[in-house]
């Protein structure tokens, strides 16, 4: 498990200020906002753990050789962490006597993945730089490195986040946007966490084209849109046929579409 208790707890509200879209890879630039007692800076680990980014990058590159989805999965972990009380790695905490894990919230249960990869990053960083790099920063760096390794753009990553020692499944259930939201509802959900630029929504919600989506989350658009008994008329016919082949009517809703 990623050892978040190594760091003092600071709550930091998410401030994702600028979405970046490049080709089919949707990414988000995380601009550091003020903390209670410190300011995020790209040079935070320059003296204490100068190889932090390369260590994380190497783990992802190795994993990509056997798991093409891992980039999208790591971006999603960062997204789902930041959407609930800020980017504090609370998503990584397991159930305990005092913690009700966010991993079992509706938006994460049986879908959030890549925790084992984060654990490998943390283990290597603990060996190289003991008790130095926060889990929240690991998730942040991993998201950017995943985009770069997939052929997308790079961006400067402000660092210095602190990890939470508590989690909130209730907040995760309340704030993580489900796949059934309309565009207007998605915009409202993102605006509620200060993501007012449409590019932010495209980068994060659209990043599902970078990984996989369960057929059960969109089958209604393929076969019974708005109770019509017909597909969503806005879907491109060729794209619709491809999705129907991957997600047959009456099939296992748990099968996945690889975009």
UniProtKB/TrEMBL annotation:
Record has Oxidoreductase as a keyword: yes
InterPro entries on file: Haem_peroxidase, Haem_peroxidase_sf, Peroxidase_pln, Peroxidases_AS, Peroxidases_heam-ligand_BS, Secretory_peroxidase
PROSITE patterns: PEROXIDASE_1, PEROXIDASE_2, PEROXIDASE_4
Residues involved in heme b binding: 208
Catalytic residues in the record: 80
Annotated positions binding Ca(2+) 2: 209
Residues involved in Ca(2+) 1 binding: 81, 84, 86, 88, 90, 102
A Pfam family annotated for this UniProt entry: peroxidase
Enzyme class: oxidoreductase
Keyword line: Calcium, Disulfide bond, Heme, Iron, Metal-binding, Oxidoreductase, Peroxidase
GO BP of this protein: hydrogen peroxide catabolic process; response to oxidative stress
Cofactor binding note of this UniProt entry: Binds 1 heme b (iron(II)-protoporphyrin IX) group per subunit.
Protein name: peroxidase
Lineage start: Eukaryota, Viridiplantae, Streptophyta, Embryophyta, Tracheophyta
């Amino acid at each position: 498990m990623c050892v978040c208790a190594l760091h003092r707890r600071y709550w930091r509200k998410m401030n994702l200020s600028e979405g970046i879209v490049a080709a089919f890879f949707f990414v988000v630039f995380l601009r550091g906002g003020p903390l209670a007692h410190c300011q995020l800076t790209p040079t935070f680990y320059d003296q204490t753990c100068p190889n932090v980014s390369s260590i994380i990058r190497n783990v992802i590159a190795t994993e990509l050789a056997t798991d093409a989805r891992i980039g999208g999965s790591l971006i999603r972990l960062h997204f789902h962490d930041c959407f609930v009380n800020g980017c504090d790695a609370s998503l990584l905490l397991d159930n305990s006597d005092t913690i009700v894990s966010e991993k079992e919230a509706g938006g994460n249960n049986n879908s959030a993945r890549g925790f084992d990869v984060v654990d490998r990053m943390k283990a290597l960083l603990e060996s190289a730089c003991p008790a130095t790099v926060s889990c929240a920063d690991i998730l942040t760096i991993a998201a950017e490195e995943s985009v770069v390794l997939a052929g997308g753009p790079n961006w400067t990553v402000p660092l210095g986040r602190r990890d939470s020692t508590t989690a909130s499944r209730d907040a995760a259930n309340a704030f993580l946007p489900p796949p059934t939201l309309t565009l207007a509802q998605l915009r409202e959900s993102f605006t509620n966490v200060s993501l007012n630029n449409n590019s932010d929504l495209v980068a994060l919600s659209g990043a599902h084209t970078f990984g996989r989506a369960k057929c059960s989350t969109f089958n209604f658009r393929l076969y019974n849109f708005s109770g019509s008994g017909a597909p969503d008329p806005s879907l491109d016919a060729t794209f619709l046929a491809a999705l129907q082949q991957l997600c047959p009517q009456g099939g296992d809703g748990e099968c996945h579409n690889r975009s």
